[in-house]
């Protein structure tokens, strides 16, 4: 009798599923034969980032729904019985934008420090200028960039009306950390500046703490000491050190080794791929031996500081790096009584070289098109500039809000003789979006597409290998 009622309940459930209209089955059971009718698709933001439907919340003839909905079904309805079916209702606009608009909607090409170096040579500034104009230099850089087949590029770069000032045989300092931000007594746990990292990854030891080197001179360093702890994996990591313009950078610092009873637990490391959260997940080069960490005098109590060797970091020139001081004691059940105390101070990365500087640098955006083998700036369109975003108090503009802001900008920026314009704007910090605007009765409006209609695609779960396959498309009649 219980089995009989169980089958009746299943039958009633299936009948109810078939009779529902425009329902959301995203959390429906997926372990039996199912017929999902009229799923109203709203999950556009789960589609591939930057794709046309993800940005615009509708499909078009060139952006067919089935190409996006099959992967969506496979990700969300993946444990079905063969011959299960689904019909999905979605928004459809029966027209496509011009290909050029879609191609201009892209991730910005940001001119990198290495690009500026290629422009200026070994001694460079991260900016274009009147003598090294963007319109002259960007096409050269784009011609050497083979990473994209898109014939359009929206470029973000720096510009100054001034020319660089060159200084020769100048000491250039990339890092000079003397811990002047510390104000507490020895053993005080104080915050490090933004961009720095101070953490015990083991959960067993202590962080790097304040150490008063000379109270009269108000001189402080950082100390690591995991005595009477079960271990420690304590990392102090500098902020990112920009060696992009460096040639032969040098590194040194002061180190004190105290309460030394034969346990060496300090390493000095460098990485060009620190992720900012877990140093054990990154690649580090050990600099300890080069610096002579084990060669300085040790103390049986609090130590004096000694200057380590100065080492060459030229293999990291052109990169952004972090330097780490790691205090590592393996975890053990009992407490350490013989752990070593270390004090660090005066971390410095520097070199003497020719140096260039420039004033009044600001950000700009421009669009370029490839004509044959030649890249050229596109002049008959409007690319929003930083001052435009300041005017509307926005950092970027959502596509569904663009008209209210861009119409205001165009009215202020364009001459009255202009009545049609392609506009490119930031729809995220790293991506652009392009639209056509027309002047109508004194106001700028987005060139309209035909109104959206609803369509329904039908799919069947064909096999565990093929999973969901497309069956047909039909208009939704209201």
Number of strands: 25
Reported by name, the CATH topology of the largest domain is Jelly Rolls
What is the CATH architecture assignment of the largest domain?
A: Sandwich
Q: What is the SS-derived class?
A: alpha+beta
Q: What does this protein look like?
A:
The chain is α+β, with helices and mostly antiparallel strands. The chain folds into three domains: 2-94 and 451-475, no CATH class; 101-163 and 362-446, no CATH class; 172-356, Jelly Rolls (Sandwich), CATH 2.60.120. The protein is 17% helix and 36% strand. The protein is built from nine helices and 25 strands. The protein has helices at 2-19, 52-56, 65-76, 99-104, 113-120, 134-143, 288-291, 386-392, 402-413, and strands at residues 35-40, 85-92, 109-110, 152-159, 165-177, 197-200, 209-214, 219-225, 232-237, 241-242, 250-258, 266-271, 285-286, 306-307, 311-312, 320-329, 341-357, 362-371, 374-377, 381-383, 420-428, 431-440, 443-446, 453-463, 467-475. The strands form five sheets. Strands 5, 7, 8, 11, 14, 15 and 17 form a seven-stranded antiparallel sheet that branches. Strands 6, 9, 10, 12, 13 and 16 form a six-stranded antiparallel sheet that branches. A four-stranded mixed sheet has the order 1-2-24-25. β24 and β25 (467-475) form a beta hairpin. The protein starts with a helix and ends with a strand. 28% of the residues are buried. The model is unreliable at 1-30 (pLDDT under 50).
